[in-house]
Design a protein that fits this description.
Blueprint: E1 2-3, H1 11-14, H2 16-25, E2 33-34, H3 40-50, E3 55-60, H4 62-72, E4 81-86, H5 103-112, E5 114-127, E6 132-137, E7 140-144, H6 145-156, H7 162-175, E8 180-186, E9 189-195, E10 197-201, E11 205-206, E12 210-211, E13 223-228, H8 233-243, E14 254-259, E15 261-266, E16 272-274, E17 280-297
Parallel strand pairs: 1-2, 1-3, 3-4
Antiparallel strand pairs: 5-6, 5-17, 7-10, 7-16, 8-9, 8-15, 10-13, 11-12, 13-14, 15-17
Amino acid sequence: MIVNPASANGRTGREWPEIARQVNEAGLEPDVLVTERPGHATELAREAAASGSELVIAVGGDGTISEVVNGLADLDGAGPELAVICRGSGCDFIRTFGIPKKTPGAVQVAATGTPRTLDLGRVRFTGNDGTPRTRYFANVASAGMTGIAAERVNESGKPLGATVAFAWAAVATFVGYHNSAMRVQIDDERLELVSNNVIVANCKYFAGGMKILPDADPADGLLDVLVWGDVSKLDLALNLHKLYRGTHVTHPKATIRRAREVTVTPAAPLPIEVDGEQPGVTPVTFDVLPSVLRLRVPA
């Protein structure tokens, strides 16, 4: 069990005795490993897999889950199963699978759930230090405005919850944001356009409950892609609520595709977002790794 005590605004650490009690009552007796810094959950997940663990339980928010997934991604499905007790404010990853957000229900899924084999996304990009980097994502990654919005949210926190934080960040970012000329290669199809954002999804939800690609299937061997064209500030104001219901996909400036690989090359570097974090900039290539993760979901 890899625990981020700082998750849920520190409540995970404060409530740990009760969480541990529920875990033990469910018949799980895990070795408990506590994260101490960003990236530590990835190291702990690799160590757990190398030691022969059969199950890794991530206890934290979407960022913690993503770090754990990055520690398991290279094992091609031969590593331990993953279970999730989500303790973050957004908990977007678990929405696609119906894993309960409340801790007692999540503990029961960890103890008795059914393993489901999933794909992962891979991102190759330029890190903030200027070097080539690779990272994996379980949920959603993007290039463009959402990279700036994610950075704004992570710097300011989520005192009113993830939904409010991301909605505010989207509006605040777009006020000063200028859509960019870019080339988007989606498998064999090339788009040359002015775009606000390119979103590449393994699962359905991101940004505190936005149903951004409602038909995404994390086990179909493909990534779902949304290319937002040259949308205006008025477009955003009129359609922001549709993002939470998944009805924005019929917007005339929304291009929806499925693909194995997507490359985004803007005229100038743009920030990218990976599972809610902002690790670098474009140019960026997203591709899919089929059937490399086993997640415990409700039976």
